[in-house]
Specification:
This protein is mainly β and 738 residues long. 3% of the residues lie in helices and 53% in strands. The protein contains 2 helices and 40 strands. The chain has a 22-stranded antiparallel β-barrel. The longest helix has 15 residues, at 17-31. The protein is globular, with a radius of gyration of 26 Å. The two termini are 24 Å apart.
Length: 738
């Protein structure tokens, strides 16, 4: 899909970015009188990751590793949220994925930052919300350090969501789906071109889902409405605009944990510890809009792309945290009880604005052919919060339960705490990024890939009561270098090196009385609570091989990523001002990724594996973690898919997927771990041709053998959490294409 320009309803550079984009287009259209090839959106035989930074170059020819998942692939796997991507790519793993909350992903063992590692049509968005996939054409996952693609980001990679655009041919799709226990989904996808020579196009997506999962006490609902339009102003000029609005309301799922010094056996995955009578849903509302303009000038393409995103969230949870009875605040009590907190942070508002101006084209210097990209990105982030409730729930006087205590069997009941006793942190960020890249074809076989991005950040933070204001500015450059050698058609070797920069924020946890577990109003557990920490550097070295043949393709990548690490220094027992988050040593992740796909007659196979050696190093604050594996990072992951086209029944295919994951560490000192697990999913797809329409039937069962296991072990909010593998789940859907 062509990468082009966009903007939104309101923005930081002009009061009317739509008018600005229209003026830019009109000027370009009048200045360029030569008739050029039309700017259209077309399909491709080879996948292209637009987030790669190298334009329309197919993945098989770029010096990086990425996965591109089409909307059809996601539907075949029953994927409804970003967390479902972990079933498909071995480099992607869970990182605190809870029902009813936003998704956290890890790539190559590093957790992606939801504030900085997500893109929508190439522009930055905040992923601290529920992201619907109903109106997404594909999901791209770029693996590894992304310094030339993003000014600030965690080193694991980037996720880019590509929005559905108007199609050349009329499109009328209706989908109905059911998922155990009682979730029901209805969605429509309509596209139409009109006007003289079909110069105008519109595409509308709408979806509604009643959510009733296997997890108890987690009923909810979600909806989506989106529209995308384009105007082919001339054969060389295209203007696009789109918006989406979405809503999700559903109680979320807190994790289980260690019980004293022990990792418990896997529990019934249907138990929801957020089952108090006063438990409320997490509500996530998101509105996003963009305008994009493209103008071709010979071998060059000019783009202007702007977008705005506005999020509103009510984050509410009956939150299990620690065990004051045993003076242990990173796990639950030995007898299965825990301190239960009433957490409510309502009317959270996040806004992200971005504008990118870029030019991409080709030029020659002597015998060397260059593919250039140059541009600038300006972004602005505003996060506004109010006071929050974070305190022990009250005792249930009827049952005489001690104040604020819950149990892992989900049977103890308490009363809510209605006080707003904790401040939050408002943050502002402004970023200006200048970037340039060049793919220089030195010979028919050798290409040099060079990129540089210079970023200037300005960040401010202040508590919601006006106290503890902080600010800082920082500038840095992130270069990238690679060499590739094509030793045969569709076969290449490459070596790459790159740098990245990321930032962290100290936790905003309130201080507590370690004797009673009660929150002490007006205090913070961290001395730098809620403050943005100085940007930290990362680097990556990668060697790769990509091979494509008529019936098969395979690849191999060796990589090493070294990233600055953070440690919590001090007593860090939850008491006020007894902990400080600081930069401390680094983490080194060395690994190998392999993938292959092969087709023979009615059979097709594809799969991948990742072997990862991850270590903490050079920590002075916690020397006992040096040489140890980080928590929640598996050493080995294997994912396989087999599909068979049934010759005797035209349109029928059968599919099996297998997943194998090795053990994960639960504690930083590696004294506790959860074992690995395997999972098998089965599905079938049947295309039924009718006179004027096509029915696509899909059915599947996830976790066929109803395997009980701990799926992940995130160390989140200075606490050990354990999430179980979801119970066996049946699903069924039908898609009508008119």
């Amino acid at each position: 899909m062509d990468i082009t320009m966009a903007t939104t309803r309101s923005f930081l550079f002009a009061r009317s970015p739509v008018a600005a984009a229209a003026l830019l287009l009109a000027t370009a259209a009048h200045a360029q009188t030569t008739t050029l090839a039309p700017v259209t959106v077309t399909g491709r035989a080879e996948p292209v990751a637009s987030i790669s930074g190298w334009g329309d170059v197919p993945l098989s020819q770029t010096p990086l590793q990425a996965t591109v998942l089409s909307a059809e692939q996601l539907r075949d796997r029953g994927a409804l949220r970003l967390a479902d991507v972990v079933k498909i790519d071995p480099s992607v793993s869970d990182a605190y994925n809870s029902e009813g909350y936003w998704d956290f992903l890890a790539v190559r063992g590093f957790v992606l930052d939801n504030r900085f590692n997500y893109r929508r049509d190439g522009l930055p968005i905040n992923a601290e919300t529920s992201i619907p996939l109903d109106n997404k054409d594909r999901v791209e996952v770029l693996k590894g350090t992304s310094g030339i693609q993003a000014g600030t980001s965690a080193p694991g990679g980037l996720v880019n969501l590509v929005v559905k655009r108007p199609t050349d041919a009329p499109l009328r799709n209706v989908q109905l789906g059911w998922r155990e226990r009682g979730s029901v989904l209805g969605a429509v996808d309509i596209s139409q071109r009109f006007g003289e020579q079909q110069v105008f196009g519109v595409r509308v997506n709408a979806a509604y889902e009643h959510i009733d999962p296997q997890l108890r006490d987690a009923k909810g609902e979600r909806n989506l409405l989106s529209a995308a339009g384009d105007w082919r102003i001339s054969p060389s000029t295209l203007l696009e605009a789109e918006f989406e609005t979405s809503h999700r309301s559903q109680p979320s799922q807190p994790g289980f944990s260690m019980l004293g010094p022990n990792v418990p056996a896997p529990v019934d995955p249907r138990i929801n510890l957020n089952n108090q009578p006063w438990s409320q849903p997490v509500v996530m509302d998101a509105n996003t809009a963009s305008v994009r303009a493209t103008h071709n000038m010979g071998s060059w393409r000019l783009t202007a792309h702007a977008a705005t995103q506005r999020l509103r969230t009510d984050d509410r949870l009956a939150f299990p945290y620690g065990c004051s009875a045993e003076s242990s605040y990173d796990r639950y009590c030995s007898d299965g009880t825990y301190d239960l907190y009433d957490f409510r942070s309502e009317d959270e508002r996040r806004r992200t604005d971005a504008l990118e101006i870029a030019a991409r084209g080709e030029a020659a210097t002597g015998a060397v052919q260059h593919a250039w990209s140059v541009g600038a990105l300006r972004s602005k982030v505003e996060n506004r919060f109010g006071p929050q409730t974070y305190d022990r729930s009250y005792a249930n006087l009827i049952e005489a339960v001690p104040s604020g205590i819950g149990s892992v069997d989900g049977t103890l009941i308490t009363y809510p705490n209605n006080s707003q006793n904790a401040t939050n942190t408002n943050r502002d960020e402004r970023s200006t990024e200048l970037f340039v890249s060049d793919a220089a074809k030195l010979t028919d076989s050798v290409t040099a890939w060079v990129g540089l991005r210079h970023t200037r950040l300005q960040r401010e933070a202040v508590q919601t009561d006006g106290s503890e204001a902080t600010s800082y500015s920082q500038s840095f450059s992130t270069p990238s270098l690679a060499m590739s050698y094509s030793f045969a058609p569709e076969q290449m070797l490459y070596a790459s090196w790159g740098r990245g920069v990321e930032s962290d924020v100290a936790p905003n946890l309130p201080g507590i009385d370690t004797g009673t577990g009660q929150v002490i109003d007006g205090t913070k557990a961290f001395t730098n609570a809620g403050q943005a920490l100085p940007a930290a550097k990362s680097r990556q070295i990668e060697l790769g091989l990509k091979v494509g043949t008529t019936n098969a393709n395979w690849g191999l990548a060796l990589f090493e990523i070294v990233r600055s690490a953070w440690s919590d220094v001090g007593l860090c027992d939850g008491s006020p001002d007894n902990c400080t988050r600081v930069e401390d040593g680094d983490a080194r992740h060395r690994g190998v990724e392999a993938n292959a796909a092969w087709r023979s007659g009615a059979w097709s196979f594809q799969g991948g594996l990742q072997a990862l050696q991850a270590q903490r190093r050079n920590s002075s604050a916690k020397p006992d973690v040096n040489g140890k594996r980080p928590t929640n990072v598996p050493e080995r992951t294997l994912k396989l898919e087999t599909r068979y086209q049934v010759a005797s029944v035209k349109g029928l295919s059968l599919q099996a997927n297998a997943l194998g994951v090795s053990d994960r560490m639960v504690l930083e000192d590696n004294s506790a771990r959860i074992p690995g697990y395997g999972q098998v999913d089965l599905s079938t797809r049947y295309e039924q041709k009718l006179a004027s329409s096509t029915l696509t039937w899909r059915a599947g069962v996830d976790n066929l053998f109803d395997r009980r296991a701990w799926r992940e072990s995130p160390f989140q909010f200075s606490h050990v959490y354990l999430y179980p593998l979801a119970a066996r789940t049946f699903r069924l859907s039908v898609e009508v294409s008119l």
